From TrEMBL:
<dbReference type="Pfam" id="PF25461">
    <property type="entry name" value="Beta-barrel_SelB"/>
</dbReference>
<dbReference type="GO" id="GO:0005525">
    <property type="term" value="F:GTP binding"/>
</dbReference>
<dbReference type="InterPro" id="IPR009001">
    <property type="entry name" value="Transl_elong_EF1A/Init_IF2_C"/>
</dbReference>
<keyword id="KW-0342">GTP-binding</keyword>
<protein>
    <recommendedName>
        <fullName>Selenocysteinyl-tRNA-specific translation factor</fullName>
    </recommendedName>
</protein>
<dbReference type="InterPro" id="IPR057335">
    <property type="entry name" value="Beta-barrel_SelB"/>
</dbReference>
<dbReference type="InterPro" id="IPR048649">
    <property type="entry name" value="WHD_1st_3rd_SelB"/>
</dbReference>
<dbReference type="Pfam" id="PF21458">
    <property type="entry name" value="WHD_1st_3rd_SelB"/>
</dbReference>
<feature type="domain" description="Selenocysteine-specific elongation factor first winged helix">
    <location>
        <begin position="83"/>
        <end position="116"/>
    </location>
</feature>
<feature type="domain" description="Selenocysteine-specific elongation factor beta-barrel">
    <location>
        <begin position="2"/>
        <end position="77"/>
    </location>
</feature>
<keyword id="KW-0547">Nucleotide-binding</keyword>
Amino acid sequence: MIVELQTHTPLTQWQPLHIHHAASHVTGRVSLLEDNLAELVFDTPLWLADNDRIVLRDISARNTLAGARVVMLNPPRRGKRKPEYLQWLASLARAQSDADALSVHLERGAVNLVGFRLGTAAQRRRDARTAATAWLYSGWLQLVECASCRPLAAENSRHISDLS
């Protein structure tokens, strides 16, 4: 994953790090590219979207080293240090919205719109709502199927039908 760094202290090539995102935390390493761009390599997967913010701490987890913003989730395996690719990454890092990022991606050719859409924060929020709804509904189904809870399930069914 390629990130735009806002460093507090200088980072070194292939430095081990603790990487924090929301309530998640993994370890990994940093591969410095150019200026404020770097690639993060995770020891275990971390669910992220474009433009997500992360915090980088030293391997002892005592000192905060940098903040970062996700620029690209799936960089190519080769050619990341080519000048034209680094220039393109810098323009992608300057993109302020999903529409701007899409325009920059289109400069390099075709874009997998499903993959691009899934990487946006708005889509991730919709996915989270869908998952929460499915979880609530599955709990309601378990309640209905529970033999010892049939009277309560019947009352809940009446209440739900009254709401609709």
